[in-house]
């Protein structure tokens, strides 16, 4: 059983519900949030994860691109995503692999079972796409 699960169980037994802010100095607790639009595909999150909980996949999920509205800001990635949507003859059926020479595209997958909330992914993230929320959800 993970530390976070033990913490959740203790809190639930005490009748605590909702979000609990993790006190400073209490290491290994929190939740990772990921903003794919900010990800520059550097892979530093994966390189610096001590638990191998963060993995950078060199795929591009066009299915997801077609499901959500892409904000029309000036990020290079968003401009290309909107262009793909405009040029597509039909919605794709599966993610596509990204060639090695094309940098900046892919996605980060976080294994929440392995993640210890250390914050290395956030510290090393060049695009500011990963954040550790110092909160634990108690149901």
Q: Please, could you describe this protein's structure?
A:
With 139 residues, the protein is an alpha+beta fold. It has a domain at 60-97. 27% of the residues lie in helices and 20% in strands. It is built from five helices and eight strands. Strands 1-8 form a two-stranded antiparallel ribbon. 16% of the residues are buried. The mean pLDDT is 79.
Question: What are the SSEs and their pairings?
Answer:
Layout (H helix, E strand, L loop, with lengths): L2 H11 L4 E4 L9 E4 L9 H4 L6 E4 L1 E2 L1 H6 L8 H12 L8 E2 L9 E4 L9 H5 L5 E4 L1 E4 L1
Antiparallel strand pairs: 1-8, 2-7, 3-6, 4-5
How many beta strands in the DSSP annotation? 8
Judged by helices, strands and strand pairing, the structural class is alpha+beta
Strand order across the biggest sheet?
Answer: 1-8
End-to-end separation: 17 Å
Largest sheet: 2 strands, antiparallel
What's the average pLDDT?
A: 79
Count every helix, treating DSSP H or I runs of 4 or more residues as helices.
5
């Amino acid at each position: 059983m993970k530390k976070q699960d033990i913490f959740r169980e203790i809190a639930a037994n005490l009748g605590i519900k909702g979000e609990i802010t993790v006190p400073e100095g209490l290491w290994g607790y929190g939740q990772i949030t990921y903003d794919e639009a900010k990800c520059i595909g550097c892979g530093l999150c994966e390189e610096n994860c001590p638990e191998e909980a963060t993995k950078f996949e060199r795929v591009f999920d066009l299915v997801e691109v077609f499901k959500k509205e892409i904000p029309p800001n000036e990020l290079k990635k968003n401009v290309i995503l909107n262009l793909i949507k405009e040029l597509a003859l039909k919605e794709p059926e599966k993610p596509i692999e990204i060639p090695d020479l094309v940098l900046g595209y892919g996605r980060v997958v976080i294994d929440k079972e392995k993640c210890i909330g250390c914050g290395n992914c956030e510290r090393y993230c060049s695009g500011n796409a990963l954040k550790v929320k110092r909160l634990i959800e108690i149901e």
